[in-house]
Amino acid sequence: MALLLAGALSPLSAVADSTAVFYEALAPYGNWMEVGNYGYCWQPKNESPDWQPYRDGEWTITEAGWAWISHEPFGWAVYHYGRWLKVENMGWVWVPGTTWAPAWVSWRQGGAYIGWAPLPPEAIFRAHTGISRWSDAYFGIGPGHYRFVRSSELHCGDVASQLIPVAQSASVMRQTENVTQIMESHDLVQNAGPNVKLLANGTTAVRRLRLAIHTGSEAGKPMWEEAGTLHVRVLDLKDPNHSAPPTVNKTFSHPVFDFGWNHMGRASQISQLRFQILNEARAFVERGWSGVLPLREEGAPASP
Questions:
Q1: Beta strands in the chain (DSSP E)
Q2: Looking at residues 207-236, what average pLDDT do you find?
């Protein structure tokens, strides 16, 4: 199906060199705020209380792995650059980043389910390390941040209509294992994730699109689909920008973060799930993974 992902870039320019390029572009769709050590973050406005990143859209397979195609007008930016965090009594906010990827999520797969959760700002991508199956354990990602669907429904053009209620996420999470595999190949971030051959015994017809990366200097749409090809104009963002957006709506000096573990079940059940997640990461490392875990950035909140 044809999908309009965004209008013309104006005021964006493909030669922009910092994340300040997002300030004016995202202002019509949300508010900029200052959130603790994370600096200037963005939050969509007029969303329902149960809104979550990577909910309104669809998954497709490309040469760079699993790509998220958002049905929201701001999706070209916030699901392909930067990371997300959740603040208690405020909701999800986006922390700008400089590197484009098909999606920045942690994946789980198993039994009849597939799920994904937004990666936090601490998930800094380094080509020699990547982000792998230890992501849940290392970043403390809880079941409340995952959205699951039955694997036979991942091909659905609107996964929001197929999502399993968050109240069931802990139970479903126990039936899955982490399959995250974000790496770099040919100077492009790859999002491998779930094994498509295991989707509903291989009978699910997952949509596939060719991927065309545009890096020219002329302005235009940042992301669009045409004739079976997903076109992406990757911005050359070399450095974060710490200057203030034109309008800062709120300042949260001492935010309290929600890691997705609150109200997810009895204490004994949560303890068992934490132990399972830790064992998954240990088993992956013991099977011979040769990478080095990235160091936490100074000032980053500790996982629960």
A1: 30-35, 40-44, 57-62, 65-70, 83-87, 91-95, 105-110, 113-118, 147-150, 177-178, 182-185, 188-191, 210-214, 223-226, 229-233, 250-252
A2: 87
Output the six-digit token pair for 141. Answer: 């990602």
Q: 114-167 pLDDT, tens per residue?
A: 999 999 999 999 888 899 999 999 999 999 999 999 988 887 778 899 999 999
Q: Read off the pLDDT of residues 195-221 as tens digits, 9 standing for 90 and up.
A: 887 775 555 578 899 999 998 656 678
Contact in structure between 232 and 100 (CB atoms under 8 Å): yes
Read off the pTM.
0.89
Q: Is 265 helix (H, G, I), strand (E, B) or coil?
A: coil
What number of other Cβ atoms are within 10 A of residue 54's Cβ?
21
**What is the signed CA dihedral for 160, 165, 170, 176, rounded to 10 degrees?**
-40
Give the residue extent of every domain in the chain.
Answer: 26-286
The owner of tokens 């002329």 is 218
The answer, yes or no, to whether the previous bond of 11 is cis (omega within 30 of 0) is yes
- Which residue from 19, 25, 133 is spatially nearest to 83, judged by alpha carbons? 19
Give the C-alpha distances (Å, rounded to integers) separating 220 from 2, 75, 107, 266, 292.
18, 16, 32, 51, 39
